Automatic annotation (TrEMBL):
GO terms for biological process: translation. Pfam families: Anticodon_2. Coiled coil: none annotated. This is Aminoacyl-tRNA synthetase class I anticodon-binding domain-containing protein. The keyword Lipid metabolism does not apply. Residues 3-81 form the Aminoacyl-tRNA synthetase class I anticodon-binding domain. InterPro entries: aa-tRNA-synth_I_cd-bd, aa-tRNA-synth_I_codon-bd_sub2, aa_tRNA-synth_I_cd-bd_sf. The keyword Aminoacyl-tRNA synthetase applies. One of its GO terms (molecular function) is tRNA binding. It comes from Phytohabitans flavus. Keywords: Aminoacyl-tRNA synthetase, ATP-binding, Ligase, Nucleotide-binding, Protein biosynthesis.
Length: 85
């Protein structure tokens, strides 16, 4: 993960604590984070995908997060933040 991964994961974790847990809302939250930082969705979702799935490619991310659930998703994001130091 790049140097931008940590702040992106922190922002995603904060946003995902409170938003409605539906794929469209999860995507919109991440798009808003990207817009704040001047990044396109692909650059913002990459660290989230790696943190949550352990892969750089895979099934549609937001639908996967919805199925995985808030608690498991947040747990994986927090674990990735711990690993990043």
């Amino acid at each position: 993960m790049t140097a931008t991964a940590r702040p992106l994961l922190m922002s995603a974790t904060a946003a995902y604590r409170t938003v409605e847990w539906r794929a469209e809302v999860l995507k919109a939250a991440l798009e808003a984070i990207g817009a704040e930082q001047g990044l396109k969705l692909g650059k913002v979702q990459a660290p989230v995908r790696v943190a949550v799935t352990g892969r750089t490619v895979g099934l549609p991310l937001f639908e996967s997060l919805e199925v995985l659930g808030r608690d498991r998703t947040l747990g994986r994001l927090l674990a990735a933040l711990d690993r990043l130091g």
